[in-house]
Amino acid sequence: MQTLDIANPFGAPVYYRERVSSTMDEARILAAAGAAGGTVITADFQEAGRGRTRGRAWMADPGKNLSLTIILRYPDLQSIPRAITLRTGLALSLAVEDFAPALAGMFMVKWPNDLMLGPMPGAACGVEAALKTETAFKAAGILTEADGGTVFIGIGVNVAQTEFPRDLRARATSIHLALQTLTGAEPPPMESPKARFRLLERILVRLRGELEPAGDAGDWRRRLEERLYLLGRDVQFVPGAADSDAVIEGRILGIGPEGELRILPRGETEVQSFITGELRIP
Length: 282
Known about the structure:
Blueprint: E1 2-3, E2 14-20, H1 23-32, E3 40-46, E4 66-73, H2 84-99, E5 107-110, E6 114-117, H3 128-131, E7 137-147, E8 150-157, H4 175-183, H5 193-211, H6 220-225, E9 234-239, E10 248-255, E11 261-265, E12 272-274, E13 277-280
Helix pairs in contact: 2-5
């Protein structure tokens, strides 16, 4: 395991391995061995990277994207910042725009844990028809797990990947593809560790800022809602488990103080709030 010489505002080591089962698994091993809060593990490839729900994997080409997990330590569960996953999404959107300024204002946070890019003119990922509508494409994902007061935040960002599996081509994109579509030219190389670790530094800086209890971080709901994916749009929402048969149709009105999704069901006058569930576009 290599220690990277990059700035970490959390004041802890940033470790790198070429290949791991998942950075989340590695982070849990580090935490059990006493790693300090703010410790980061990043890898070129995850053999078993996973998504928020069981059975979903995080698919990424080796050496082309950024995968990491950061360990955060709090005295107890009650001390964990509320809506930590959404606030991580806000930090991530700002960090990616720091890294690729040409894409400023184009990243949206999809409740509860994805980063979407678009809509854009052109034809990223070869789906021109979709981009001419209001379709957005997944560019990053977040997985948060907690063990008592220890929080593990896993982040995966599509950086330089240019090809996706057939079943993801209409739903996923990368920073490289987005810049290529926007400018019509080949963007600067992003596959080097130097480029990806520069993005990692920006993520850590923004994450520290968004999780601080004072300053701009206290206004996270307003700033998040400014880039909340599908805000004001009619959606289908599956409360609870992703495979639930229950579907609610309604309009997204915003985010509650604990990070809950606020929806006004169709035909009703009272807003409902949800802590868990999955969004679908009708």
